[in-house]
Design goal:
The complex is a heterodimer of chains A (114) and B (112). With 114 residues, chain A is an all-beta fold. Chain A is 0% helix and 56% strand. Classes of the chains: A mainly beta (114), B mainly beta (112).
């Protein structure tokens, strides 16, 4: 375990379903992130939460909705997804900008949309 | 536009056969270049941060170097446990909070 825990590890959902991904960090970091990783593509930043305030939304479709109730927990709510949304969704945390220590990533949720 | 390109896409090495991975970047102003290692089924694991040209950092069999246009990750006498995908990422001086530009990665397989 890296100190960032993601659940579930695997998720299969239909296009009309609603589901949520959960991320929890035990490192005392003050920033958390959602990234999307598709095969053979660079990681794509989706959302950034700094001190519980969303500071970055990289033009993510509204079918993805983040929630950060406190500095240790981060959720990604999913609804009416498309098959092209199938990917590995990674949560990460950092202290401040994460320059010296980088980000600490969770193991991800492998999402399949059918 | 900021861009990060990693090469090769994949690399197959014999145990003990040293090699280098390349990360070339085009950015408006570099704040830091980062290397990560990613094992199958896991998230990336932080390895190094490099801040300025000429800087070098080492960790076990890995050594990262930085020039004004590219970074190299040298793997010396690799072992099978060094098999992973290696990712580089850059932060630019003008970016907003915590935003990295990642490369697509180099998949390294080390065979006994």
């Amino acid at each position: 375990e890296t100190g960032v825990t993601q659940t579930p590890r695997h998720l299969v959902m239909g296009m009309t379903n609603k589901k949520s991904l959960k991320c929890e960090q035990h490192l005392g970091h003050n920033a958390m992130y959602w990234y999307k990783q598709s095969a053979k593509k660079p990681l794509e930043l989706m959302f950034v939460y700094n001190f519980k305030e969303q500071t970055e939304n990289n033009s993510v479709p509204s079918r993805f909705s983040p929630e950060c109730p406190n500095s240790s927990h981060l959720f990604l709510h999913l609804h009416t997804l498309q098959p092209e949304d199938s990917a590995l969704y990674l949560c990460a945390s950092s202290q401040d900008h994460g320059d010296d220590g980088g980000y600490t990533f969770g193991s991800g949720t492998r999402l399949t949309v059918v | 536009e900021d861009q990060v390109t990693q090469s090769p896409e994949a690399l197959r090495l014999q145990e003990g056969e040293s090699s280098s991975l390349n990360c070339s970047y085009t950015v408006s102003g570099l704040r830091g270049l980062f290397w990560y290692r990613q094992d199958p089924g896991k998230g990336p694991e932080f390895l190094f941060t490099l801040y300025s040209a000429g800087e070098e950092k080492e960790k076990e069999r890995l050594k990262a170097t930085l020039t004004k246009k590219e970074s190299f990750l040298h793997i010396t006498a690799p072992k099978p446990e060094d098999s992973a995908t290696y990712l580089c990422a850059v932060r630019v001086t003008t970016d907003s909070w915590g935003k990295f530009q990642f490369g697509a990665g180099t998949q390294v397989v080390v065979t006994p």
